[in-house]
Specification:
mainly alpha
Amino acid sequence: MTLKAYIIIMSIMTSMCWTAFYFITHAINPETTNWYGFLLFYLALFLALSGTAAILGFFIRFVGIGQDLAFRSVKAAFRQSFLFAGFFVAVLILLSQGLFTWMNVALLIISLSVLELFLISCRK
């Protein structure tokens, strides 16, 4: 896949995820929905955030800094966007369950940092 095709496909899919997130937020009542509604909400938000962060991270890394080859920049931006979106959704879930404390957020940051360091060190 070429870089241009990747950017076009990621942009289209990310805009579709944001559209789905918009419709989910307007169609689902959080007071009356079951866990399927919350699953759709968090999944759509996760996918939309990860796509947006992957595109922005790639442009910042490749165009702004010009640090690496395109496929390495895409790989790193995609990996880090998943971690960022996972962190954001996890914080929202903690907030919704009344478990948001700075200790929990610190443990989440530490665990995601360890996961990122592990993924960086496992290069083949």
